[in-house]
Amino acid sequence: MDEAVSTQLDRNLWRYMSFTKFLWLIQNRKLWFSRADKLNDPWELALAGDQLEHVILRRPIRSLQSDVIEEPILDRARRINKLWRETTYISCWSSSDHESYALWRIFCGSTDGVAICAPSYNLTRAFQGVSWYPVTYDAPGTEIRTPSPTGLATRKRLMFQYEREVRAIITDGMIGTPVTWHEFGCTCDFDPELLISSIAVHPEADSTLMDAVVRVVRDYTPKLSDNVAWSKMREPPPLLK
């Protein structure tokens, strides 16, 4: 593992979500992995640019003795790429020592949501057989090599670089952690009291959201009751206190 990858995987990992998704996580004690084609970015696992050209140039050689009609290379690439997008499952986290204003806004709206923080050490060891990868950001298709589902799933366009994303990735053929399959994703057992170190409440929410989060945590994960706090972004500057 190179130094850059090791540094990202040694930090705290954050996951921003609406209160509804937080409630689901705490009640069910499950971590959701979304099917890649159901994530918001249509470029997930996309083949493009030089990499797509590389795939086309390396098309399988047709036997001179064969009477079988050859599948056009673009049709073959499209079919395999679609299959990969439908059989790759991803849980998205952000690697940072602090909160992100942008991620609060994008994933939690103007006032609704929480951010859970978990040491990467805990997460990467809790799911046997699930691989965790830092995402790299560059122009699509700049990597000239034969693609793989994991390779495509760990590269995103440059405009997403602010996410500092780390992804847990599951494929259909994986073994290890027990997985429950669903129509648009899969779930793994997730122990919030063991894995979560802190729960931050949206910086622009009112007290009703804080009350709801405190109640949910007290009822379902009482060991985390002392770990709930307002986002640090809510703290005013000294002269405005």
Kindly report the average pLDDT value: 88
Task: Give me the secondary-structure category.
Answer: alpha+beta
Order of helices and strands: HEHEHHEHEHEEHEEEEHEHE
Indicate the overall shape.
elongated
Indicate the percent of residues in helices: 25-40%
The rounded Rg comes to 21 Å
Give the number of DSSP strands: 12
Ends: how far apart?
A: 46 Å
Domain module count: 1
Low-confidence stretches: 1-7
- Indicate the proportion of strand residues: 15-25%
Number of helices: 9
Largest sheet: 10 strands, mixed
Describe this protein's structure:
33% of the residues lie in helices and 23% in strands. It has one domain (3-60, 70-240). It starts with a helix and ends in an 11-residue tail after the last strand. α2 (19-28) runs parallel beside α9. The strands form 2 sheets. Strands 1, 2, 3, 4, 5, 8, 9, 10, 11 and 12 form a 10-stranded mixed β-sheet that branches. The protein has 241 residues and is α+β, with helices and mostly antiparallel strands. It has 9 helices and 12 strands. The model is unreliable at 1-7 (pLDDT under 50).
